[in-house]
Amino acid sequence: VTETPEALRRPTMQAVKSKNAKLEMIVRRLLHAAAYRYRLHDNTLPGKPDLVFPGRRAVIFVHGCFWHGHDCKRGARMPATNRQYWSAKISRNKQRDAEHIHAIRKAGWRVLTVWECETKLPSLMKRMTRFLG
Ligand SMILES: [Zn+2]
């Protein structure tokens, strides 16, 4: 069995979705254990935020570093093939994310983005607690 290194594998929509579901579960578990209650994927708000806290007028997005173009090592990694395609696609994703955040804030909500690379940090819970109040 030959395995393709992860960096060379072409990200598929399915892979993106399942990775995002995993990241989201990490965040949900932490917040649930701390007795926070939230709605999931509220499609009445721009960008369908992953977690919505209506009483606090707050939303959390959980974003994969590659797909959403995070300014970190993981986010800078590009597939070996079709680089132009991916970098254009990721630029569009970033643009769309920025528009969604702007629109949500304009509607009077607070927004926190939790990045994939932050989901393993011990400081994540503190950061979310500080944001949620
Ligand atoms: Zn990152």
Order of helices and strands: HEEEHHEH
The pLDDT mean sits at 90
Q: Beta-strand percentage?
A: 5-15%
Considering DSSP H and I runs of 4 or more, what fraction of the residues is helical? 40-55%
Count helical runs: 4
Q: End-to-end distance, in Å?
A: 50 Å
Strand order of the largest sheet: 1-2-3-4
Main beta sheet: 4 strands, mixed
Low-confidence stretches: none
Structural class: alpha+beta
Task: Tell me the number of strands.
Answer: 4
Bound molecules: zinc ion
Commentary on this structure:
A 4-stranded mixed β-sheet has the order 1-2-3-4, with helices on both faces. By secondary structure, it is an alpha+beta fold. 44% of the residues lie in helices and 13% in strands. It has helices at residues 13-33, 73-76, 83-106, 124-132; strands at residues 39-40, 51-53, 58-63, 110-115. The protein has 4 helices and 4 strands, in the order αβββααβα. It binds zinc ion (ZN). Zinc ion (ZN) binds next to helix 2. Zinc ion is lined by residues 65, 70, 72, 74-75, 115-117.
Secondary structure layout plus pairing:
Layout: H1 13-33, E1 39-40, E2 51-53, E3 58-63, H2 73-76, H3 83-106, E4 110-115, H4 124-132
Parallel strand pairs: 3-4
Antiparallel strand pairs: 1-2, 2-3
The structure holds zinc ion.
Zinc ion (ZN) is lined by residues 65, 70, 72, 74-75, 115-117.
